[in-house]
Amino acid sequence: MLSELAKPELKVWGTLLKEVVNTGLCMFCGTCIAACPVNVLVPTEDERPTIKGMCVLCGLCYHSCPRVELPIDNIEEHIFGRRRFEGESYTGVVRAAYSARSSDPKIRMIAQDSGATTSILSHALSKGYIDYAVTTGTFEGDRWRPRPQISRSLDGLLKTAKSKYSPGATVSGVADAVAGHPGAKLGMVGLPCQVEGVRRLATSPLGNRKIGEAVKLTIGLFCFDSYKYNKLFLEYVQAKSQIPLDQVEKVDIKDNRFRLFSGEKILMDLHVKELDQYVMPGCSKCQDFSAELSDISIGAVGSQRGWTTVLVRSEVGEKIFNSAVEEGVIEVTPISEVKPGLDVVVKLSQIKKKREAPYIRHGTG
């Protein structure tokens, strides 16, 4: 009887549902879906993971979820070989910082901002640093609903070059790539919460480390908030505002303005405050603006229009980035020579650090 009373609670899908999915902590990053070894966790159109099949009670989904626990210091030591210095409190570990853009005018024309992300990934593929890249594409017939896409060429990457501003369970695409291409070295582009998911997969003692360890390069995107696709795009943009999504060619958020474009024509222009009701609930629990746990972080904030700010964080990120520069794939300028520069990145990070994040753990152990 005493042994039964002392038996620890089994942490499985039902626990994750209770503690994360149903409490507004879930970011629909797709990490739990990726971790499931029997493929019974699936994404849904209402931007939640759900179960379809028999759970085997392995607990991998629970122990891989970054919103259950995210031991920042342990992960930084694992990825970067050190914790962040005092001066990196708001940026995370940074080895070098630049303003950059693709050297290819075709890529710049198609890409969201500077094309730097696409060019770095394409270079990594061509040089064998990675074999496949997991990025965020969309569904055929549902142009802006995000979903993971696996690419091995520039043509594939260009199809996913536009920003989506909604989560799409991108980490689940990593598991698909591992299953379809055993032993392949993977790259992934994701939001801060999605990068956190990959890092938790790779470092959690009780998580599905095989999936996370397959990712050899992470490029994280600056992100302040992400939006519910159904509520914002389907209900507000398409149904209420009568803007057909198949006419929208670009979605952009800059200078606190949410804009939809068809070519050069602006279809919608709103202050982001008007979209607060459509923000993913889990964003209110996120402190990471600049994707602090990625190998390379990229975002438009801090650089001139047509360029993006690049924070090189890890040794592998530095190696691939420098290789891309040396071969003329991207053009760079030190961020210290650019206005407004890194200060605005730090400012936005400071604002986001004020949010409550109960899952974050500091200290080694």
What does the model show?
The protein has 2 domains: 2-226 and 279-361, no CATH class; 229-278, Nuclear Transport Factor 2, Chain: A (Roll). 31% of the residues lie in helices and 22% in strands. The chain is built from 14 helices and 15 strands. Strand 12 and strand 13 form a beta hairpin. The radius of gyration is 20 Å and the shape is globular.
Helix content: 25-40%
Poorly predicted sequence stretches spanning 5 or more consecutive residues: none
Global shape? globular
Provide the number of structural domains. 2
* Helix-and-strand structural type: alpha/beta
Overall strand count: 15
Question: What is the string of SSEs from the N terminus onward?
Answer: HHHEEHEHEHHEEHHEHHEHEEEEEHEHE
Number of continuous helical runs: 14
The major sheet is characterized as:
8 strands, mixed
Biggest sheet strand order reads 6-5-7-8-12-13-4-14
Rounded mean pLDDT is 96
- Gyration radius from CA atoms, angstroms: 20 Å
User: In percent, how much strand structure appears in the residues?
Assistant: 15-25%
Terminal-residue CA separation: 32 Å
